[in-house]
Amino acid sequence: MSGLTYMRFELLRAFRNRRFFMFSLGLPVVIYFAVAGPYRNVHDYDGLGVSLPLYYMVSLASFGTMLAMISSGARIAGERQAGWTRQLRITPLSIRAYFRAKVLTSYAMAITSLALLYLAGVSLGVSLPAHSWLALTGLILVGLLPFAALGITLGHLMTVESIGPMTGGTVSLLAIVSGTWFPITHGFLHDVGQWLPSYWLVEAGRAAIAGHEWGTMAWGVVAGWTIALTLLAAFVYRRDTGRV
């Protein structure tokens, strides 16, 4: 099996999964309308100088895309249970092609989630200059790199029965610690959050709409977690598929 064929298979399978669409892509949009809809006319949320619909569009963009990336682990866990992952090892498909297909498929789902939230935001009156939309999208896509590796890692560590609660719990915990639902400017959560990639994923969106720099620490934390989780993903993949 060639890398291109496998990637096409992955994309088709992901976009045909109705349950995945409802949970990973539909849930953030539903939450967004529930939270921001009643307050669409609040134009200065918490003294931050941005409207409430814009604030939560950016916050839920990080939540929704992070959920879409990590949820790739559920598909991998299913493949492992069916024995498909080990079968791939006896094909000409390289490990690099395998990881590339998984990462690009995760990004395709994340971009779809992002587009849906952008449309939801526009429907509630969110308006940004073109360069702000581009900066927002670009920084979020960079900030998602560690979560692509995390999804693959969890998929090769967890079972089909445990991956759902693990995914939901991980994303929910990271969202709280990273300030998705409310601003975190000081205290314990702020100190811990700065060392997590999820914190800088949230800050990526807010920096883009405010016109601020993402910062050296943001790039360093995201790069460090990306390298560490990529190495871990490669290790658990080899250990998992090498079992007799």
Distance from first to last alpha carbon: 22 Å
The average pLDDT is 85
What is the percent of helical residues? over 70%
Assess the beta-strand content as a share of residues: under 5%
The class by helix and strand makeup works out as: mainly alpha
* Total beta strands: 0
- Sum up the overall morphology in one term: globular
Radius of gyration: 18 Å
Structure annotation, total helices: 12
Low-confidence parts, pLDDT < 50 over ≥5 residues?
Answer: none
Largest sheet data = none
Q: Spell the H/E element sequence.
A: HHHHHHHHHHHH
Can you give a write-up of this model?
- By secondary structure, the protein is an all-alpha fold.
- 77% of the residues lie in helices and 0% in strands.
- It contains twelve helices and no strands.
- The longest helix is centred in the middle third of the chain and has 29 residues.
- It is globular, with a radius of gyration of 18 Å.
Which keywords apply here?
12 helices; mainly alpha
List the helices and strands and how they pair.
Blueprint: H1 3-15, H2 18-36, H3 52-70, H4 72-82, H5 84-88, H6 95-123, H7 130-143, H8 145-157, H9 160-177, H10 188-193, H11 197-210, H12 216-241
Helix pairs in contact: 1-6, 2-3, 2-6, 3-6, 3-9, 3-11, 4-8, 4-9, 7-11, 8-12
